[in-house]
Amino acid sequence: MNVASQPALEGAAPIDRSARETVLRMRQIDKTFRGGVVALHEMNLDIRKGDFISLLGPSGCGKSTALRLIAGLMRPTAGRIEWEGGGGKDDLGVVFQEPTLMPWATVEQNVWLPFRLQGKSLGSCREKIYEALALVGLENFGKSYPRELSGGMKMRVSIARALVTDPRIILMDEPFAALDEITRQKLNDDLLNLKAKTDATVVFVTHSVFESVFLSDRIVVMAARPGRVVKEIEVPEPYPRGIEWRTSPTYATIARETSDTLLGTLSPGAEVH
Amino acid sequence: MAAVDSSPSGAPAPQLSDISHAVDLEEEQIARRKRAEEIGKWALPIIVMAAAIWFWDRIVVWNEIPHFILPRPGLVLETLWADRAMLFESLWVTVKITALALLVAVVGGVGLAVLFAQSKFAEMSFSPFAVILQVTPIVAIAPLIFIYIESKLVGLLLCAWIVAFFPILANTTLGLNSADHNLRDLFRIYRASRWQRLIYLQLPSALPYFLGGLKIAGGLALIGAVVAEYVAGSGGIDSGLAFRILEAGYRLNIPRMFAALILIAGTGVLIYALTSLTSYLLLRKWHESALKREQ
């Protein structure tokens, strides 16, 4: 595992992230919808290889818009989104709030989808598909249909599908928001294990302060009306993280700082949804 | 292992074997009701149908109704057997037209739906024609069709098709447009072509809707075939059941009218059973409509 190669850090010495190579740059991004709603104003973000970035903020802060812009589902009104070395077919994996599986296809066929759309046969990808399924602990469920799985298992299939092409960035749009607390906790732990094993680059949208501090190494705090970035908070704790991290004083301090930043962005009368 | 008296957390965990199988009255009752329903599902229709036929027979006997007004069921069966050569030949004609019309309706309906799904403008331009064809009664259109079209077979086919294709078109269009929005986004992110999106996403999403349309269209194709033949009216070698009914009516051969009617009804039931079976076989693995609920 890659974990062993990381230097043992005393306390919470910051990891030098500037040494990582940049994958994607967002420069001065504006997005204005028809009718004049400013969804995003002057957003700047550098996504570097191996980053785990959380976009945190209340409803209407533009975090989902930012994700859709990165995914290429929308074009910015102004500003530039640049992929280092240009865009390609294996740029992205996506996990939505719902598992978004094809109900008529088996688990292995669902995970095969990104390859299938590249014209590759199931046989030629089977090894990779089962590797991805093993990472989420579902290697024995390849022939099952989604309806035979629990909510948490469906979400795992969805994660396996996002991982399978080894994409440059994995986008996750509040992936565990619809799950119960216990399942969510388990999936958060598993996600970090996955991250440690694959060193994937993740952009994670959430409105949970604790989830963002637990998971990410950078928290991008956003505010609404107009949607904008107010602060980036570094979380210098190395991976893997477990229950010790969740109960450590550093965790509490950063969670406090993040919460305060978030509260400071709210205009009087506004509510966090 | 020996029975554990206390689990580490303190409270003694009850052993499964210790729990006696107390009879839950409510569960028993539910199970009993289920068994009754299982039997009733098959037995009731048969019993009630037999009773109805028996009652029909008794009414004729009790009221001494002459057979040229209302024949006894036995006589209808006798006629069905006696005229079997003629009736089944006609049945074959009707079935052929129905099946062909349904086939063309499926091809045309799905083809048009795919076109509509590809282009909003095509949908806006042509859907009014489809609606007008659908809402105008076929008996009103049929005479014109038989004026313009020489071949009787083609005319009949066209009539049956007009009636049958709309539910397939409407349902399949709805199905193609109801593919999950996140899945559509996912296909865009993975740079799927239009064709890939159609084959791997939209058509499978539309399948349950299409099959619903097919069930309706199967019955309508038969109705279309029969109605069109009433309008076409001419006799000859390749006459369908509708013409046999007309002809028997002129001759006051009421038992034969009933015999032909039974064949038409039977054909309709068979078509419904076949389309339902197709639907079940295609959807049983994944679609809600075909799944058995646990409770």
Explain what the structure shows.
The complex is a heterodimer of chains A (273) and B (295). With 273 residues, chain A is α/β, with parallel strands linked by helices. Helix content of chain A is 34%, strand content 22%. Chain A has a domain at 92-166. In chain A, strands 5-6-7-3-8-9 form a 6-stranded mixed β-sheet, with helices on both faces. In chain A, α3 packs across α4 (151-163) and α6 crosses α8. Chain B has helices at 25-62, 73-82, 84-118, 120-135, 138-148, 152-177, 181-189, 194-232, 241-250, 254-283. Chain B contains 10 helices and no strands. Chain B is an all-alpha fold. Chain B is 76% helix and 0% strand. Chain B has 2 domains: 35-65; 73-283, MetI-like (MetI-like fold). The chains are: A alpha/beta (273), B mainly alpha (295).
Q: Would you spell out the secondary-structure blueprint of this structure?
A:
The complex is a heterodimer of chains A (273) and B (295).
Chain A lengths: L21 E11 L5 E11 L3 E5 L6 H9 L6 E6 L8 E4 L11 H10 L5 H14 L15 H13 L5 E5 L7 H18 L3 E5 L2 H7 L2 E6 L4 E7 L8 H4 L2 H17 L8
Chain B lengths: L24 H38 L10 H10 L1 H35 L1 H16 L2 H11 L3 H26 L3 H9 L4 H39 L8 H10 L3 H30 L12
Q: Would you report the number of β strands of chain B?
A: 0
- Major sheet of chain A: size, sense and barrel closure? 6 strands, mixed
Element-by-element helix/strand order of chain A: EEEHEEHHHEHEHEEHH
CATH architecture verdict of the largest domain in chain B: Orthogonal Bundle
Written as H for each helix and E for each strand, in order along the chain, the element string of chain B is HHHHHHHHHH
What summary fits the major beta sheet of chain B? none
Share of β-strand residues of chain B: under 5%
Instruction: Name the largest protein-protein interface in this structure.
Output: A-B, 21 and 20 residues
Measured as a percent range, the helix fraction of chain B is: over 70%
Q: Please state the structural category of chain A.
A: alpha/beta
Oligomer classification: heterodimer
CATH superfamily placement of the largest domain in chain B: MetI-like
**Alpha carbon gyration radius of chain B:** 28 Å
